[in-house]
């Protein structure tokens, strides 16, 4: 790893990134920004522990807090690269459009799998070894000559069906992901959306455009390992 990449990673860690990776986006972008930098922050374990049955206001608030932190993080990363003469675009929430089919041009999850951070679980969320699916993601695109990681191209969920069985809307199909698989083979996205809205109104009493549920990632086997490791260490500290 050269100095540019080391210094970029150091900046992103200073801003709170716990997982960072570089993706080769060649052939995926149309603007010459052929490197993607994926970042992830875990959702605090005590909040995840509380949403295994229903969403909470604490999770909703943390969702916004982490998203704002990630936006600031990738904006700082893009500015750092621009200072050295490279083009860079921060994929902040305001910079990413979502169409009527709930798709965006450069999904955070796609950059993250190409950057080696994790794989797509049966829930259609990114699953990481370290934190399961209990992460919030963001990314930036650049033409800086960063060294890409080895991408993850297959599911590591095995026969686990915890998220499938836990989904209150039965939106998750249960398919094991491989890179390039259509989203429709993994999840009924609009059913997931409507389920989130219904549960927010039921358990939080409101819906204002941002959707949360969290049940699928809270019960994930890898998420549960993160919870046990984190909560047990706090109990003994």
Automatic annotation (TrEMBL):
It comes from the Bacteria. Pfam families: Fer4_16 (PF13484). One of its GO terms (molecular function) is iron-sulfur cluster binding. InterPro entries: 4Fe4S_Fe-S-bd, 4Fe4S_Fe_S_CS. PROSITE patterns: 4FE4S_FER_1, 4FE4S_FER_2. Keywords: Iron, Iron-sulfur, Metal-binding. Residues 148-177 form the 4Fe-4S ferredoxin-type domain. This is Epoxyqueuosine reductase. It comes from Selenomonas ruminis.
């Amino acid at each position: 790893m050269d100095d540019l990449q080391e210094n970029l990673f150091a900046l992103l860690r200073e801003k709170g990134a716990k997982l960072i990776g570089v993706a080769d986006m060649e052939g995926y972008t149309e603007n010459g920004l052929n490197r993607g930098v994926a970042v992830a922050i875990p959702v605090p374990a005590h909040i995840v522990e509380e949403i295994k049955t229903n969403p909470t206001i604490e999770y909703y608030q943390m969702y916004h807090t982490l998203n704002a932190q990630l936006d600031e993080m990738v904006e700082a990363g893009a500015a750092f690269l621009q200072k050295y003469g490279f083009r860079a675009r921060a994929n902040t929430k305001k910079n990413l459009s979502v169409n009527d089919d709930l798709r965006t041009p450069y999904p955070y999850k796609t950059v993250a799998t190409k950057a080696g951070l994790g794989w797509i679980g049966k829930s259609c969320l990114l699953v990481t070894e370290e934190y399961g699916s209990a992460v919030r993601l963001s990314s930036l695109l650049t033409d800086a000559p960063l060294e890409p990681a080895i991408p993850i191209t297959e599911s590591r969920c095995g026969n686990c069906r915890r998220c499938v069985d836990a989904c209150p809307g039965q939106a998750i199909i249960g398919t094991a992901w491989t890179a390039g698989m259509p989203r429709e083979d993994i999840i009924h996205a609009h059913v997931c959306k409507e389920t989130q809205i219904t549960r927010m109104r039921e358990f939080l009493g409101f819906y204002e455009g941002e959707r949360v549920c969290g049940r699928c990632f809270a019960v994930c086997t890898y998420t549960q390992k993160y919870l046990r490791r984190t909560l047990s260490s706090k109990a003994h500290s």
